[in-house]
Amino acid sequence: MMYIEIINTFIRYIGFIVEYIGLGIVAVSAFIALKKLSLKEATLEHIRKHLAKRMIFGLEFIIAADIVLATVETDITQSARLGGIVLIRVILGWALHKEAGLKLK
Question: What is the average pLDDT value for the chain, to the nearest integer?
Answer without folding.
Answer: 85
